C-alpha cells in the first residue's frame, strides 16, 4: 500500500492544553471517536469539501476531503515532482510564491530544505509523532495563506510551461488542471484555517 494522508485544520490552543507528547494523540482520539460521526460509512461524503465532526470535540477540528486523491499521498508527491520540472520556466514571481507555498506543505525542495513541519509544537519522539507529515502553526498558516493569495491569480499563467515541461523521461506529463486543483484545495484549507486562527495537520495512518 502507498502512503496515505488525511489533512485537518485544528484549534492549536485546544491541543496546547495537554503536554506536547499528548497533542497528536488528542487529535487522533478525537478524529477516531465514534461520536465524531466521521466513521459513519452510511453517511455520504462530499469530496472536495469539509467533514465537520460532531461530539464533544467537534468544535476543535475538521477534516478536508480532497476531490480526486482518494486519501493517497501520491497526487501530492507528483504535484511537487512536476513543479521541479516546470519551476525554471515559470514567471519569477510565481516561482518564488509557489516555492514558498509548496515547501511549507508537501515539497522537500530541490535540496531537501523542506519546512513542512512546525515540530516544536509536537514531540519529536517517534513513538508519539508517527505519521506526522504536515504540521503548520496558526502563524505559519497565515503566512502561507497570504502566499497563496499572491499565487492564485498568477497560477493560470503556468499552463503552457507546465504542459511543455512537466513530462518525465518516459514521456508522461502532468495535467495542469489537476495540478492547479490540488493547489487550490490546499489554498482552501489554509484560508479556512487562517480565518479561524487554527493550524493545519497532515497525518498518515
What are the SSEs and their pairings?
Layout: E1 6-10, H1 12-15, H2 20-32, E2 49-51, E3 61-65, H3 74-86, H4 92-103, H5 126-129, E4 132-136, H6 138-151, H7 159-165, H8 176-196, E5 199-203
Antiparallel strand pairs: 1-3, 1-5, 2-3, 4-5
Mean pLDDT: 92
The proportion of strand residues reads 5-15%
Helix count?
A: 8
Shape: globular
Note poorly predicted spans.
none
Rg over alpha carbons: 17 Å
In short, what is this structure?
The chain has 205 residues and is of the alpha+beta class.
Explain this structure.
It is a single chain. With 205 residues, this protein is an alpha+beta fold. The protein is 43% helix and 11% strand. It is built from 8 helices and 5 strands; from the N terminus they run βααββαααβαααβ. Strands 2-3-1-5-4 form a 5-stranded antiparallel β-sheet, with helices on both faces. α3 crosses α7 and α4 runs antiparallel to α6. The N and C termini lie close together (11 Å). The model has no long low-confidence stretch (mean pLDDT 92).
